[in-house]
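I would like you to help me understand the sequence and structure tokens below and explain how sequence relates to structure.
___
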Amino acid sequence: MSKSLLELTPVQAVACCSPVTRDPLSAEAAERIAPLVKAIADPVRLRLLSLVSSHADGEACVCDLNDAFDLSQPTISHHLKLLHEAGLLEREKRGVWVYYRVNAGALSDLATLLGGVTA
């Protein structure tokens, strides 16, 4: 079996892990999950995720998000691309625009992974 068949995306890695409060993460699981957590650790990306999720019909295009930031459209698109690559956003091209929506399953899996964490 090739190595590529055994590799999991960050979202798949989160989905198959038990909550961190129940069992410690293995080093391998932590390595696979870190890119997902890293993707939302940036304030711009965290806001984008929130804006897309709360937008009408749960989806938005870059043109809908530009005014919320003092950033160029290419910079916003770059952050959206990183969220998509991490598996947190799904996208669909319609004409010249790309529309993004939150991957609810990925957020649910991430919440489950971190579930039960209290201060």
Observations:
- The mean pLDDT is 80.
